[in-house]
């Protein structure tokens, strides 16, 4: 999905997406041959998590650490299920 659709689905602006790329809480996706950013569902989920955490008062600069901890917990859970 492109930037406008991603922003619309998450209830943010395209400018907000660019800001999140700039402060590195949301990785910039690869571009298509015509220069458009191509987002995935995983990107949308991360964006929704960023918005939730931001609404709870978590500063943007702390979010990478929060995501790293959550990813580690998810991996641990998966390993336990196997």
Automatic annotation (TrEMBL):
Keywords, alphabetical: DNA-binding
All residue ranges annotated as the HTH merR-type domain in the record: 1-69
UniProt-recorded Gene Ontology molecular function terms: DNA binding; DNA-binding transcription factor activity
Domain of life: Bacteria
Pfam families, per database record: MerR_1
PANTHER family, sorted: HTH MERR-TYPE DOMAIN-CONTAINING PROTEIN, REDOX-CYCLING DRUG-SENSING TRANSCRIPTIONAL ACTIVATOR SOXR
Name of the molecule in the record: MerR family transcriptional regulator
């Amino acid at each position: 999905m492109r930037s406008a659709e991603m922003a619309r689905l998450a209830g943010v602006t395209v400018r907000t997406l660019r800001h999140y790329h700039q402060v590195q809480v949301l990785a910039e996706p690869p571009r298509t041959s015509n220069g458009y950013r191509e987002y995935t569902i995983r990107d949308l989920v991360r964006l929704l998590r960023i918005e939730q955490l931001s609404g709870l008062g978590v500063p943007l600069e702390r979010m990478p650490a929060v995501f790293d901890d959550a990813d580690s917990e998810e991996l641990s859970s998966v390993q336990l299920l196997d």
